[in-house]
Structure formats: C-alpha cells, structure tokens
Amino acid sequence: MSTTKQTTDGIRTNVLEFTLGKNRYCVDIGYVAEIVNTEELTSVPNTPDHVEGVMDLRGETTKIVNLRKIFGDEESDLGSRIIVFKRKRNSKERIGWLADEVHQVREVHTRDVDTSVEGEGIAGVIRRDDEFVLWVDPTDVRI
User: In 94-136, at which residue ranges do the beta strands (DSSP E only) sit?
Assistant: First the structure.
C-alpha cells in the first residue's frame, strides 16, 4: 500500500513524526506496521551495540534497535515507544525502533524536502516553522 499520491501540484506522501532526544524525525508511513509501548526487552549477547534486545509482539520475535546509538546521540535513556515497521514495504521481517515520543501522521509535499543533506539513513530534511524534521529512510539505515 503506497502512501504517495500524485496531485496537480506535485507528489505528496504521508509520514509519521517522532522524537529522539532533541531531534524530530519522520518516516514514510508505508513502512510502519504498528506503534507499541516499550515493554521488557530480552538482551541478546554478542549483538551490535545499537541492538537493545528482542521482544515478543503477537507471537513474533521482534528485534528492537536504539536509533540514538546509530545516529551518534550520547543520551542513554531508552524511549518509551516503539515504532514497529517492515524494512521493505512488502517484507514480513519486523523491526522496532525506540522513540521518545510518537507524533501525528502528516502529509508532506516532496518539493518541501531538502535532499541536499547527506547522512546515513537520512533521506532529507523538512523545515517546519522554527525546526527541522529529519526524514529517515529505513532501507538505508545499517542495523
């Protein structure tokens, strides 16, 4: 199911906004499977530092990743929400990203996305009033 739609004034898509520390991020809603509260995680030995553990979501083992560690944020608190998504739109593989807070779904016009900013996993930057929203491409984040 694609959330991208062609309109007479260009292409629009829906994104889910969330915060990690002081930064606001968004991800295309087409990747999102569900949003759940952080529950008890089971740590897995010998996994990369950014893997906080696994949890059972409706009978499926779901890997939970701390994006703060991937993006180099020094804050050590774990978020209270988990955004569960499919890494690829048609994939059954589920992964959860810890988030401090999950905000609403917003429609974004692609002409408003600045793609000149480069960074691993960052597809672009959206300027909204007095803040920037970093657009994360989950297929481009090494986890």
Answer: 94-99, 101-109, 113-114, 122-128, 131-136
pLDDT in tens, 15-43: 999 998 888 999 999 889 899 998 889 99
Instruction: Give the whole-angstrom CA distance, residue 100 versus residue 53.
Output: 17
Strand partners, 122: 119, 136
What is the C-alpha to C-alpha distance for residues 9 and 22, in angstroms, rounded to an integer? 33
Beta strand 23-28 with 131-136: parallel, antiparallel or unpaired?
parallel
Question: Each residue of 53-92: pLDDT tens digit?
Answer: 999 988 888 999 998 888 877 776 778 899 998 755 555 6
Quote the CA–CA distance of 43 and 63 in Å, as a whole number: 10
Give the predicted TM-score (pTM) of the model: 0.83
Cα–Cα distance, 143 to 130 (Å, whole number): 31
Report the domain count for the chain.
1
Helix or strand (DSSP H, E) at 85: strand 81-86
CATH number of the domain to which 14 belongs: 2.40.50.180
Residue 129 structural domain: 5-140
- How many Å apart are CA 67 and CA 95, to the nearest integer? 12
